[in-house]
Structures are given as C-alpha cells and as structure tokens.
Design brief:
Elements: H1 11-23, E1 34-39, E2 42-48, H2 58-61, H3 64-67, H4 84-95, E3 103-108, H5 112-121, E4 125-130, H6 135-143, E5 147-150, H7 153-159
Parallel strand pairs: 3-4, 4-5
Antiparallel strand pairs: 1-2, 1-3
Helix pairs in contact: 1-7, 5-6
C-alpha cells in the first residue's frame, strides 16, 4: 500500500494542476487558458484569459474573432480579452512583485505577443501542456534563452 507521502505530486505536477484550476475562471468563448508564475516553489501571481476588469466579458458580448472566423493565433487585436500570461505579468506589476528569474506554468505555449512580455519580464522557464499556432513565439523564446518544457502531467501521474 502506498503511503500518503508517496502520493504527493511533484512540484511541476502541483503547479500545472493549479493552471487547470485557474483556467476555469476564463471568460473566453474559444479557449480557457491558465497561467501561474512561480519562484522558489512559491506562487507569485496567476492569470487567466478574459476581458479586462470592469469590461463586459466575452460570454456576454460575444466573440468578434469567432464571428469573423479568425483562425487561432491570428489577429489578437480583434479580441476584447487579454491572455492569461499577460494577466499574470500585469498582476505582478500591479502588486509590485518582481517576477525576474521566475518560472511560468501555463496550459498553453504562449503566443508571440506574450512571449515578448515574458522575455522582458525576466521569466526564465516555461512549462506548458499543449501547443499554440504561433511558431514565432517558440523561436523568440529560444533565442532569448527561455527554457521551454512541454509537460503532460497526466503521463507523470501514470508513471507514479
């Protein structure tokens, strides 16, 4: 019989599970994304995708990108929402929390707009669950020396 100690998730699984919970707050009609910024095994900020504070959510206003049949990863400027990674970085700035040298756990690989913010915010590592239709993102993150790790925590749990 496994002891409770043996059933503890790794830190990576723990934080990745939290991204799934954070994503449940999303108000996006197309994709629910969650992000968690971590340093020294401590959560600094979280973010999910949706409209800015005080603005009508996409669930009420509808999705212009959906109406115009815009493909995933394109024409971000048409979206009233903000990405989970952007929200996590903004929360750090809003609350005066340095995220330099931190790790981002995210349900999806960030887009190129988020990648630029991640690079300039000093985030050094990204764990993500699934890809995103934006090859420029991965190229810029690698060029900047940001470590990118595709992490399927479901397979990690099965190995335990």
């Amino acid at each position: 019989m496994m002891s409770t100690r043996d059933e503890r998730p790794s830190w990576e699984v723990y934080f990745m599970r939290i991204t799934d919970l954070v994503a449940k707050r999303s108000t996006c009609l197309r994709r629910a994304v969650g992000a968690v910024v971590v340093k020294d095994k401590r959560i600094l900020t979280t973010g999910y995708n949706g409209a800015p504070s005080g603005i009508t959510h996409c669930r009420e206003a509808g999705c212009l990108r959906e109406t115009l049949n815009v493909a995933s990863g394109q024409r971000h400027e048409l979206c009233r929402g903000i990405h989970a990674e952007q929200n996590a970085i903004i929360q750090a700035a809003y609350h005066g929390v340095s995220i330099k040298g931190s790790t981002l756990f995210c349900t999806n690989l960030p887009c190129s707009i988020c990648a630029k913010m991640i690079i300039n915010a000093g985030i050094i590592r990204i764990y993500y669950q699934s890809g995103y239709a934006d090859p420029l993102s991965e190229q810029m993150l690698k060029e900047a020396g940001v470590e990118i790790i595709k992490f399927n925590y479901h397979s990690q749990e099965e190995d335990s």
